[in-house]
Structures are given as C-alpha cells and as structure tokens.
Design brief:
222 residues, Four Helix Bundle (Hemerythrin (Met), subunit A), single chain, Arc Repressor Mutant, subunit A, mainly alpha
Length: 222
C-alpha cells in the first residue's frame, strides 16, 4: 500500500525487519542511532506490535542493541569485531564459491561475467559507489548460484553487520585494482566449473579483505 509522501506501509514484522535491515546496510540508519518506537511506527507506517517483534529479530541478528530503560539503537561494530566477522564470513564465502562452480548454469555464468565487466568499467572510472554496488551484486549472484540456503542466511547477516567497514575498505588507494583482479579470478574459476580453483580464489580474496581491515586506523565504531 502506497501512502502519502511515497511511503509504503509495512505488513508484518518480518517485512519490517527487512526494511530496517536494508536501511542499516545502506547507511540510512547510523551506528548508535536510537530507534524510537514512535519514530519507527511513523517512518515505516507499521503497528507497534510489528515494530517490537522486528526489533527482537534484529537484536537476535546482532544488528541492534536493546537496553533497559534506554530503548534500542543500531549496534556499532569495532574494528576487531569486523575482522573476526570477516574471517568467519571468509570460510562461508569459500563454500559458496565451491558450490557455485559445481552448480552454475550457462545463463548464470554469463550474468557473472557481465557483473565483472560492470566492476571493470567502474574501476576505470574510479567510481567507488558503482564499483561497490556491482561487487555486492556479484556476491549475491554467487549466493543464488550456490543454492545453499543455510550458508546464505548466515552470510547475509554477517555482511549486514560489517557493511560500513566494507565500504571503508573500498576507499583505500589502489584497493579497487586489487579487488577487481581477485573477483576476475573467482568468476573465471566458477565459469570453468572448477570448484577447487573457485574456493582457492575466494580464499585469496577474503584474506586480502582481512589484511586491508587490519591496516585501517582504529579511529571509531561503524
């Protein structure tokens, strides 16, 4: 249902949780920002019960923190936490890459190659925003190809927690060049239907992300 001002009414706490989760990932809701029930009801045109249930769901995913007598806020992640989360994510991304190489269809292989081309165009234009968007879509395409629901469910949560750090990593000088090379290797292995090579290429990529995080200054929470 479209409401005045272009707002879309939310039906059910799961849909609301997804909307809030997306806004956290997109940076519309910032670390340590308070999530006041009345504001959420108005922002998402949702009922009070749906808001409360959605906050419970997001707390279980470690995306928000609820404190007695203080309400809820977006959880801020330390650099140390971001590194740990990325290390865990790396093991699952390797599994996804292996499964994708085992299960990819010709149409899916073509879609991956088109995404790599988008990343290359953005890299040549030094367009970090477009590069990051294509990067995210490429990983999501690998998730769909892998057809491993449990790994994808956990990965989506892990990525949501560290999305702001991922963007900061992309700002490191020369990072897009390194990242593009790594993603080309991953896609080439998947397209060749070589599970071992795909897993190895993903391992190199995720280790590179962890190394980039370790080189970042410890100057705040994200």
């Amino acid at each position: 249902m479209i409401l005045s001002g272009g707002k879309v009414a939310v039906h059910g706490h799961s849909e609301l949780a997804e909307r809030i989760r997306t806004d956290i990932m997109n940076g519309e809701l910032l670390p340590n920002q308070r999530l006041v029930e009345a504001d959420l009801i108005q922002r998402y045109q949702a009922g009070r019960a749906a808001v409360r249930m959605a906050l419970v769901e997001l707390e279980n995913e470690h995306l928000i923190v609820r404190e007695p007598n203080r309400g809820a806020r977006v959880r801020a992640i330390t650099l140390e936490e971001a590194i740990e989360i990325t290390e865990v994510r790396g093991a699952l991304e390797e599994l996804i890459a292996r499964k994708a190489a085992e299960r990819v269809t010709d149409e899916e292989a073509e879609a991956l190659q088109l995404l790599v081309q988008r990343m290359r165009v953005a890299q040549e234009a030094l367009d970090i925003v477009q590069y990051s968007q294509a990067n995210r879509e490429l990983h999501q395409q690998l998730y769909r190809i892998a057809r491993h629901e449990t790994a994808v469910r956990v990965l989506e949560n892990l990525r949501a927690q560290v999305v702001r750090y991922q963007f900061r990593v992309s700002l490191v000088p020369g990072r897009m060049d390194v990242s593009l090379h790594e993603h080309v290797a991953i896609v080439d292995a998947v397209v060749r239907r070589d599970p071992a090579a795909a897993q190895a290429a993903m391992r190199v990529h995720m280790a590179s992300v962890v190394d980039a995080l370790r080189q970042m200054p410890k100057d705040g929470l994200y």
